[in-house]
Q: What sequence folds into this?
């Protein structure tokens, strides 16, 4: 692999830090600029924009690859599917997201409609990467049932009340991030950021409420150490 930082005068550690701040936390480009400036790093917000545009997809792809290699036979026995509306230039679009039984975001997919065709495309895209689960939990949107009927797995769908809270709660980090970005300007930018955000969120999500302080600190340090080695 060729060095992706070879044409950049800035240290790779600083670029990784800037990308992590911008994607992981609900910060604007100018807020990241100010935080870096407090650390003695003087860069413009447009430079930070170019960094995350260039290296965000690279870091996210490497995270996904490492997670797949570390658990190639991990059973995806239950998925939670949900969709939220997002405004792009005043028009409503839909962000479909698949979350596994452990809260990992599997896939994020943007469409203009919320019909059977969109649901089918989303399901095929997710199943192509992760295989077929034993159970698929959804809300009562009819598009899911129609799409699963085409695939032939409608018997695996569950739609009971409160059963899909895991997927609905998983939208919260993205919604906080969306407010900081003050909307999106194109479907491509939303799709790109949603994909990058989900991978980086998975990497640093250690379910604080399920771990004591010592275990959580160890997992956090391990995640930071892995982050500092991305594209090394």
A:
């Amino acid at each position: 692999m060729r060095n992706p930082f070879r044409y950049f005068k800035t240290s790779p550690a600083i670029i990784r830090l800037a990308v992590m701040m911008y994607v992981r936390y609900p910060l604007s480009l100018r807020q990241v600029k100010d935080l870096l400036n407090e650390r003695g790093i003087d860069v413009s917000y447009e430079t930070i924009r170019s960094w995350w545009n260039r290296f965000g997809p690279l870091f996210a792809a490497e995270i996904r690859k490492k997670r797949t290699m570390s658990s190639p036979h991990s059973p995806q026995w239950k998925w939670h599917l949900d969709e939220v509306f997002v405004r792009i230039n005043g028009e409503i679009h839909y962000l479909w997201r698949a979350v596994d039984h452990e809260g990992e975001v599997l896939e994020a997919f943007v469409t203009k409609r919320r019909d059977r065709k969109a649901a089918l495309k989303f399901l095929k895209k997710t199943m192509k990467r992760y295989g077929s689960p034993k159970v698929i939990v959804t809300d009562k949107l009819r598009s899911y049932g129609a799409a699963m009927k085409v695939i032939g797995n409608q018997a695996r769908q569950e739609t009971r009340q409160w059963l899909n809270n895991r997927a609905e709660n998983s939208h919260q980090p993205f919604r906080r991030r969306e407010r900081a970005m003050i909307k999106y300007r194109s479907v491509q930018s939303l799709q790109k950021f949603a994909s990058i955000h989900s991978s980086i969120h998975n990497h640093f999500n250690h379910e604080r409420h399920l771990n004591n302080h010592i275990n959580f600190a160890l997992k956090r340090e391990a995640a930071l150490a892995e982050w500092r080695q991305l594209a090394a």
User: Anything to note?
Assistant: Residues 45-70 form the longest helix (26 residues). DSSP finds eight helices and five strands in the chain. The mean pLDDT is 87.
